[in-house]
Prior knowledge:
Layout: E1 5-9, H1 10-14, H2 23-34, E2 38-42, H3 52-57, E3 66-69, E4 74-77, E5 82-86, H4 91-101, E6 107-112, E7 115-119, H5 121-131, E8 139-141, H6 144-149, E9 155-161, H7 165-178, E10 182-186, E11 191-195, H8 200-211, E12 218-222, H9 228-231, E13 236-239, H10 245-250, E14 253-254, H11 262-271
Parallel strand pairs: 1-2, 1-12, 7-8, 12-13, 13-14
Antiparallel strand pairs: 3-4, 4-5, 6-7, 6-9, 10-11
Helix pairs in contact: 2-11
Amino acid sequence: MAIKLFAVDMDGTCLNHRNCISGENMRALAAAAAAGITVAPATGRSLSCLPHQLRAQLAGNPFFRYVISSNGARVTDIKTGETLFQALIPRERALELLRAFSGLRLGLTAHVNGEYLVQGRGLYLMGRAAYRTDARAGICVSNMEQALRAQAHDVEELQPYFFTAAARRRLEALLEREAADCFYAFDRIYVEVFSRDASKGSALCALGRHLGIARKEIACIGDAENDLPMFCSAGLCFAMGNAQPQLRARADRVVASNREDGVAQAVYQYLLR
């Protein structure tokens, strides 16, 4: 069965160790799209913070039309601006979680209405140093609670940052106690907190239904814990060479690492063969 939809994780997968999409990966994704495969970036980032190589495409004729953002909290048709799927944390519930976080001295960011909010100039500049051009779309706010109260939107995702092992343990205990109605996925220095109805898998299923594409005609590729739900929603699953062990165990194919253009390998050796 030919693949008709390819969901591609960004950080750690399509992006290399320099937080850039290589020319080889860009050409491979464009080739997949030219062959009739719908290419859908599937990212933990907000829509506004897509990798700059993809944002640059939007001014012309991009090879992609649909974006799964904020770990599946939203699916957007970038051609029409229509939201095809969303699963959000109600604003008041997000404010409750922020109050619970306040005693832990955490860094805080949030995804709201497609935007990326960052509390405090220190964390904002740290993001600029790590992600350079991609982080310029972030909005620095002095107080996250006040910023959420000043607008009417529900929240796609909260991201508390911890910088020590002790802070992580305290945060894990707090989330277990206070956030049973949410999903959360830990990364090296932060945790992504989102609606229990949101995941890259549920978003990918919604996009497949919208396009009339069956599960067996969907492929996905990823490297991290937040990509696992996609593996339950796709007929062909690729794990990167640098992927976490649980993804490698669930994958149909393991390809090269993000330093070695594993995405391009998946496209040329398997999807277009």
